[in-house]
Amino acid sequence: MSLYVVDASVAAKWFLDEVHAEAAWRIITPDNEFRAPDFFLLEMDNIFCKRIRRGDLSTRDASEARVLLRRLPIATFPFGQLQESAYTIANQTGHSVYDCLYVALAAELGGRMVTADRRLYEALTAGPLSDHVVWVEDAA
Predict the structure, then answer these.
(1) Residue 114, phi then psi, degrees to nearest 5
(2) Of 136, 97, 140, 139, which Cα lies nearest the Cα of 11?
(3) pLDDT of 50-91, one tens digit each?
(4) pTM exceeding the 0.85 threshold for the entire prediction
(5) Is residue 29, in this structure, part of any structural domain at all?
(6) For the domain that residue 79 is a member of, what is the CATH number?
(7) How far does Cα 128 stand from its chain's mean position?
(8) How do 32-37 and 74-77 pair as beta strands?
(9) Has residue 56 been placed in a domain?
(10) Domain count, the chain
(11) Structural domain boundaries enclosing 134
(12) Model pLDDT for residues 1-33, shown as the tens digit of each residue
């Protein structure tokens, strides 16, 4: 069984027609466990709102996606417990604290963050946290 911390770049692909969507779907199996920082649902709501404003997603489809997302077996963890680690990682990599909360959680749990954010992936694999990150196409 694999433990994945799923970031919003991957979860968005479950509901939007994007590159790597098929790979994002392949990781959803009974053999995988999923975790995320508790602000994950807020981040996903923000993505849905942006897509509605752009005209890429209807309000109805976004509402349905929100319901489906909350039914997926993703356990959330309080981000406050990860904030110091995420802050350190953000300063080391030049990425946002928000993005680094996912990898901080993966490191804390001994799992791997699965991402479809190429810049973030490359920054993390070039450093000491490389064991805690996996590209979406490689996780499936």
Answers:
(1) -100, 130
(2) 136
(3) 999 999 999 999 999 999 999 999 999 999 999 999 999 999
(4) yes
(5) yes
(6) 3.40.50.1010
(7) 20
(8) parallel
(9) no
(10) 1
(11) 2-39+75-139
(12) 899 999 999 999 999 999 999 999 999 999 999
